Amino acid sequence: MKWVLGIFAGLLLLVGVGAGAYFLGKSSSAPEGEAAATAAAVPDPATPAESATDAPAAEEEPQPPRKVEEALKPPNWPRFSIELASFRSLDNARSYQAEMARRDLKTEMVEIVDAAGHSWYHIRVGEFDDPRQAAARMPDVERKAGLFGIVVTEIRPAGTEAQ
After folding, report:
1. Which of 49, 84, 130, 136 has a CA positioned 20 to 30 A from the CA of residue 145?
2. Is the dihedral of CA 12, 14, 18, 24 positive or negative?
3. What are the domain boundaries of the chain?
4. H, E, C per residue of the chain
């Protein structure tokens, strides 16, 4: 039985040393030889041979870089909100919404009908174009509301634009 524990301890030690070596190698920057090779591969833009061939292109005005997020967003991009609660009763949803208003949270009530035909009333905060924006705002909302919320997605109907 002792030899099994010895083998287990040895394997555990070996895994620990390997993981440490991996993370040390991962955290260090690129070696100098690699950086020099990268610098040599990228030509200097001020060399005379290139400046003569690029003269017509230099006369054009440089355009600002476009944001990748804007290019990836389709016209019917969903909106994101922070959902605090869901109720089956409209009265309960309204009283909860009034309580959130007393806590300086501007909320929106969204009615969704489930497959059985029952209405659910969701209390949501904010309207964000990106889930990261909603997640960044969530700690402040949770502090004011006194409970945890979740980021939810709502698909806009076709033909409507983001406001």
Report:
1. 130
2. positive
3. 2-39, 79-154
4. CHHHHHHHHHHHHHHHHHHHHHHHHHHCCCCHHHHHHHHHHCCCCCCHHHHHHCHHHHCCCCCCCCCHHHHHCCCCCCEEEEEEEEECCHHHHHHHHHHHHHCCCCEEEEEEECCCCCEEEEEEEEEECCHHHHHHHHHHHHHHHCCCCEEEEECCCCCCCCC
CA angle 81, 82, 86 (to 5 degrees): 110
Q: With 0-12 CB in 10 A as exposed, 13-18 as middle and 19+ as buried, what is 56?
A: exposed
Maximal C-alpha separation, the chain: 80
Fold classification of 79-154 is: Alpha-Beta Plaits (3.30.70)
Q: Measured between alpha carbons, how far is 92 from 97 in angstroms, rounded to an integer?
A: 9
* pTM as predicted: 0.51
pLDDT at 15: 76
Instruction: Compute the distance between CA of residue 44 and CA of residue 47 in angstroms, rounded to an integer.
Output: 6
Decide if 123 contacts 86 (C-beta within 8 A).
yes
Residue 86, sorted as left (phi over 0), alpha (psi -120 to 50) or beta, turns out to be: beta
Q: Which residues pair with 123 in a beta bridge?
A: 85, 109
Residue with tokens 């292109």: 57
